[in-house]
Amino acid sequence: MHVVLAISGGVDSTAAALLLTQAGHQVSGVFMLHPWQPAHVAEEAAALAGQLGIAFHIVDFSAAFGKLIDVFADEYFAGRTPNPCALCNRDIKFGLLFDTMQQLGGDFLATGHYIRRMTHEQWLASHRQWHLANGTEPVSESLQSCFDAETPAICCGRDPGKDQSYIMFSVAREKLARLLFPVGEYEKTAIRGLVAAAGYDFSQKRESQEICFVPDHEHVRFINERRSGRTTSGNLVSVTGTVLGTHDGFEQFTIGQRKGMRVGFGERRYVVRLDAKTCEVVIGTRDDLARSELTASSCHWLIRPPQKPFRCLVKIRYRSPAVWATVTPLSNDEATTRIRVTFDEPRHAIAPGQVAACYLNDRIIGGGWIDV
Questions:
Q1: Residue of 48, 151, 175, 189 whose CA lies nearest to 101
Q2: CA distance 90 to 272
C-alpha cells in the first residue's frame, strides 16, 4: 500500500515513517509549508526523509494557514478562546493534505498523532469489557442506531498524556477509513526508544508544544500584529459590576485565567467572562466559574448524527478530563448541528470558542464549538 505521511522532522513523524516502512508500505513524506515557521524546519524534514529513504514532497499551504490565522485572531478579538488545531485538522491536515494524498496516488494518509483507529467491532468488544470492569453506564439506546460497521472508531491514544483525539471531532466521517495513526498504539517513551534504536537522535531537539504558527508562545503579540490598530483596553470588573482595575487588552485573557491581572485581591480570583463590546474583563471566585450547562454549535459527528438526548462523557478543553453529561440535540435538522450539554456535576472555566467533545469511553463520537 502507498501511504502518504505528514512529515515535520520531529520524533513522532519519524517514528511513524519507521513503523510504516517496517510494515512493508511504500511511504511518501509530505511537508506542509507556511511562512510562519522557522526556515530550517523544511530543510530538516527533507534531510530526514532522505535518511529514511522515502520520497519527499513540499506543499505550500500558506494561503490556508493565513485564513486559519485570521480566524484565530478574530476569535480572540470577539472575546472567545479559539482552538486552531481543531480547525487545522478539519481544513488542512485532513482537508487539503488528504486531497494531496489522493493526488499522489496514495491509499492512506498517515500522521504522527497519538490517536488510535479501530473497526467498530473491535471498539465494541473493548467497550463491553470496559463497561463490565468499571460498572459504568451502557451505550444509550438513542445512540445504538447511530453506529455502522463501515465507519472506523477514532479513539484516545495509548499514552493518556499525549492523546490528541479531542481535536478530531470535525474530521469528515467518510475520510476516517483512509487515515492511519502509527504511533497511537505506543507511549511516548516507547516512541523515543524506537527512533533512538534506529539511529536517530532527538535528545537535543525540543518537542513542539506550542501552536505551530506562534512558536514563541507570544500569541497576544502575534494577533495584535495581525489585527493592528484595535483598542481593546478597558476595566477589570467584579461579577456585580464594581470596577477593580484596568487592563491593556481583553484579548490577553481567557476564561479561568488567574494571572496577569496586576491587581491584588488577597485571595484567588479568576477571569469569569469577557465582554468584547465593552472591553470588560469580569473577575470572580472559583465558584463563579462553575457552570452546569453549555450550548455548542457547528457540531460535527463521527457517527450518524444523534437525533435524541443521550448520555456520554464530555471534554471541554484539551487537558480537561472527560466527565459524564446528558447531551440534547437542539437543531431541527438531520445533521444535529447544535446541542446542549448538561453535566452531572458543575464544570469550571467553560470557554466559548473551545470544543465540547463527546466520548463513549475512549471513542470520540463528535462535538461542537462552545457558544455559552
A1: 175
A2: 29
Contact (CB, 8 A) for 15 and 194: yes
For the four alpha carbons of 217, 116, 128 and 368, in that order, the dihedral sign comes to positive
Of 115-119, 185-189, 316-320, give the lowest mean pLDDT range. Answer: 316-320
| Sign, Cα dihedral of 181, 46, 194, 86 | negative
Q: What is the mean pLDDT of the chain?
A: 93
Cell numbers for 282, please give them. Answer: 469580569
Total-model pTM: 0.93
**Residue 291 Cα to chain centre, angstroms:** 22
Instruction: For residue 331, give the amino acid letter.
Output: S
The confidence score (pLDDT) of residue 206 equals 64
DSSP characters over 99-114: HHHHHTT-SEEE---S
Distance CA 280, CA 273 (A): 8
Q: Catalytic residue positions?
A: 88, 212
Residue 316 has pLDDT above 70, yes or no: yes
pLDDT of residue 137: 81
Angle CA 182–210–34, to nearest 5: 80
Q: What is the largest CA-CA distance in the chain?
A: 66
CA distance 265 to 261: 10
Instruction: Fill in the DSSP letter of residue 48.
Output: H
What mean pLDDT is predicted for residues 234-256?
94
Q: Distance (Å, rounded) from C-alpha 220 to C-alpha 48?
A: 33
pLDDT (tens digit per residue) in 183-217: 999 999 999 999 999 999 887 676 665 688 887 77
Taking the C-alpha atoms of residue 169 and residue 312, their distance in angstroms, rounded to an integer, is 14
Q: What does the DSSP assignment read for 189-214?
A: HHHHHHHHHTT---TTSPPP-S-TT-
**Using an 8 Å Cβ cutoff, are 182 and 19 in contact?**
yes
Dihedral sign computed on CA atoms, order 304, 306, 312, 318:
positive
